[in-house]
Amino acid sequence: MYMFKSTTRHIHIFAAEIENDELVPSADKLTLDIDPDNELQWTDEALQQMYRKFDELVAASEGETLTDYTIRRIGSDLEHFVRSLLHQGTVSYNLQSRVRNYSLGLPTVAEDLNV
């Protein structure tokens, strides 16, 4: 069975289930991997927001045939959601990450008003 997937910079979605630490293709289950390179710093609440948004997007596509396009659309929408969380300050760049490409925009740096 072919495994449909969507991979953006911060979101990986697989039409699969995890069994014994392995992805097993599935025709009706999606598995979400958020920020696999740890480019961002996540709070528990930010991760919960991501899972809720994922569930919402999956529910909105219920009844559609599971295709590469469907999964890519969900992945793209989640990537935009990650950008909005960064711009709101809900998540921030992980400056200790091995990856620093600021793909969601340059980080905001507070001005030092004591200069």
Question: Quick summary of this structure?
Answer:
This protein is of the alpha+beta class.
- Spell the H/E element sequence: EEEEEEHHE
* Main beta-sheet strand count, sense and barrel state: 3 strands, antiparallel
* Overall structural domain count: 1
For the biggest β-sheet, the strand order reads 1-2-5
Distance between the termini: 62 Å
Q: How many strand segments?
A: 7
- Pick out the low-confidence regions: none
- What Rg is obtained from the alpha carbons, in whole angstroms? 16 Å
Structural class: alpha+beta
Q: Residue-averaged pLDDT, rounded?
A: 87
Can you give the helix content as a percent range? 25-40%
What global shape is seen?
A: globular
Percentage beta strand: 15-25%
In DSSP terms (H or I, runs of 4 or more residues), the helix count works out at: 2
Structure description:
By secondary structure, this protein is an alpha+beta fold. It is 33% helix and 20% strand. The chain is built from two helices and seven strands; from the N terminus they run E-E-E-E-E-E-H-H-E. A hairpin with a 2-residue loop joins strand 3 and strand 4. The radius of gyration is 16 Å and the shape is globular. The N and C termini lie far apart (62 Å).
